[in-house]
Amino acid sequence: MQAIYKKYVAVIALIWAGCFVLLFLAHILVLTPQKNSKKQIEEKFGQAKQTYEEMVTAGKDETQARLSKEIEDLRDKVKQFVIDPEDSANLTFDISQMASQMSVSSFSIRSRDNPGVPATPSPSYVGEKQIHLSFTAGFNQFAGFLNALERNRPVLFVDKFMITRSDKAGSGHQVDMDLAVFVSKRQDS
């Protein structure tokens, strides 16, 4: 009886081992890819749910009001750097006023055509206007005038300048300066 019992236990153990191996292989070949697929589907669902919640939030009045205020704030910031084409004549007048306040002499101002390639890509909302200044001033006058230009709104960019030292003592030095300012382009609606 002992031998039959051992044989019976050995057969049962082999059957259990075979089933375990088959179930383990089924788990690796069938269930693991399904878990990965389920995880990917859950991630896509989470992204879609987040997008939906953002859209619902964007549709609310308080969200639209907040976004409108943010857009208005950004437009105000842009206005510090960009002028309207109509205001460019006022800009040359403002620069002339600054020059007279700093008592620079032989002041001349003229617009320059933009030579070469534009700084920004062609489909742009902003262009660049070049302004050339020429005047005679002492170093302190030049520094004061440059400081006034830097504090101006809209922002003026000093592209380059050249100071030619005067041969005469006590007279001002010749200054040539190129300025750049951003100008908004008209949009066809």
Task: Please characterize this protein's 3D structure.
The chain has 4 helices and 5 strands, in the order H-H-E-H-E-E-H-E-E. With 189 residues, the chain is an alpha+beta fold. A hairpin with an 8-residue loop joins strand 4 and strand 5.
Tell me the number of strands: 5
* Average pLDDT score: 82
Largest sheet: 5 strands, mixed
Query: How much helix is in the residues?
Result: 40-55%
State the secondary-structure class: alpha+beta
Per the principal axes of the C-alpha atoms, what is the gross shape?
elongated
Uncertain segments are none
In what range is the share of β-strand residues?
15-25%
**What's the number of helices?**
4
State the order of secondary-structure elements, H for helix, E for strand. Answer: HHEHEEHEE
> For the CA atoms, what is the radius of gyration?
38 Å
**CA-to-CA gap between the ends?**
100 Å
Properties at a glance:
189 residues, alpha+beta, five-stranded mixed beta sheet, 4 helices
